[in-house]
Amino acid sequence: MGIESIIDPKKKSIIRFKVITPVYETLIIKEDLQDYPNSKTPLSRSDQVYDLFKFLAAESKEHFLTIHLDSKNKILAIERVSTGSMNASIVHPREVFKSCLLSSAAALVCLHNHPSGIPEPSAEDFDLTKRLKEAGDLLGIRLLDHVIIGDGAYVSFADRGLLG
Predict the structure, then answer these.
(1) What is the mean pLDDT of residues 72-90?
(2) Which residue from 48, 47, 46 is spatially nearest to 38, judged by alpha carbons?
(3) Among 21, 66, 96, 140, which residue has the least CB neighbours within 10 Å?
């Protein structure tokens, strides 16, 4: 972040303002891991999301993650947006889409775990998903799914036809 100055010719004064430059980094990890998400394979089904992130079922806190996808549904980035308590995680659409814009995501899959082990969506889950869908539509970033991971099971909003 830098400071820029311009001169207002009418008032003959100097106006100072902050210049915000987005900074992000691409990391290429070369390891032979069987379960690591492959960025060349399209992510098109909720069971693929569950298989990649079922380890979250063992977590004692709620974690909200996003998977950023390109126009062919290939993974661009995975971000942990929020880590909450044992039954809640604070998530705001602004935080979700900030990094989506930086990664030039065309689509998004959201997921979180329920430490209780029961993946049924809460009223807050429905409300958040609706808000994320509306924000994504406004920005031109499709919300493809919201997957809730429980103990040995998951719920997909897309599979249940809840994304409208």
Answers:
(1) 89
(2) 48
(3) 21
